[in-house]
Inverse folding.
């Protein structure tokens, strides 16, 4: 079983072109090609035709039992009305987490303005994903996306489940420490490459992850994700095979950790019980 906990339905080349339903069809096709059981798709901090809103993504995926939504929470756009809307989607079971885009927007994870969203995640025991590390956009401000800033939020909210996205790359060792120190913090391996891995970079990242799992982070708190369509699903599967992990650890990373964290049911997989895509 495979859960891709980090995908998008955005257009990145032309944000003024309507993304849905084409991007959803592409995601479903790539899931089928790569035998992915579940995908969590993250909505944006922007509201543009090429960046579907949480409402649009929820409506588009409402009847698809193997695709769930992580609701992006913008520092600038979100208000109580938006959080009330997200509350309804959480209660309906379609939204399974929230996402902060630190770095893309200039705020730290523990910013007081974001406390209502943090408390919403705590109330429903859903994870809060936080962008950490390099930004796809050169306009991002990196001081806001360093994984060390997650530590304060994790300490102040010990019941909140937090996911550091992208291993905090290039600050992987700092990410290791935050995850090691705080039992309520996880990390995903998404977005380490644009498109496909090159042989040289794949060897480098394989070594980084092997060292992380050997010295600092238990496999119980590492999640498989790709950042599709920015990163290739097929290339990512080959990359994780190169880690040569024990089978039990591989199962945890590929599916079991995300199944538990996002409260997914194996019976909803299109690959189980002849359900089909």
């Amino acid at each position: 079983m495979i859960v891709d906990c980090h995908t998008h339905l955005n257009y990145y080349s032309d944000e003024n072109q309507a993304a849905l339903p084409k991007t959803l069809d592409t995601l479903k096709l790539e899931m089928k090609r790569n035998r992915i059981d579940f995908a969590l798709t993250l909505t944006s901090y922007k509201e543009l035709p090429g960046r579907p809103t949480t409402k649009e993504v929820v409506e588009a995926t409402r009847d698809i039992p193997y695709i769930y939504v992580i609701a992006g929470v913008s520092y600038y756009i979100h208000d109580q009305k938006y959080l009330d809307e997200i509350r309804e989607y959480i209660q309906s079971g379609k939204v399974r987490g929230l996402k902060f885009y630190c770095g893309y927007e200039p705020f730290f994870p523990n910013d007081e303005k974001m406390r209502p969203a943090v408390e919403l995640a705590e109330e429903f025991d859903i994870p809060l994903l936080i962008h950490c590390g390099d930004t796809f956009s050169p306009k991002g401000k990196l001081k806001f996306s360093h994984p060390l800033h997650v530590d304060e939020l994790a300490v102040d909210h010990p019941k909140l489940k937090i996911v550091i996205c992208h291993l905090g790359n290039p600050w992987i060792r700092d990410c290791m420490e935050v995850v090691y120190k705080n039992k309520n913090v996880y990390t995903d391996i998404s977005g380490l490459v644009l498109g496909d891995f090159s042989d040289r970079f794949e060897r480098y990242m394989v070594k980084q992850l092997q060292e992380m799992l050997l010295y600092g982070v238990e496999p119980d708190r590492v999640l498989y994700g790709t950042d599709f369509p920015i990163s290739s699903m097929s290339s990512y599967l080959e990359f994780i095979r190169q880690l040569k992990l024990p089978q039990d650890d591989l199962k945890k990373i590929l599916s079991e950790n995300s199944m538990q964290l996002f409260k997914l049911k194996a019976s909803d997989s299109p690959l189980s019980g002849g359900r089909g895509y």
Summary: The longest strand covers residues 67-73.
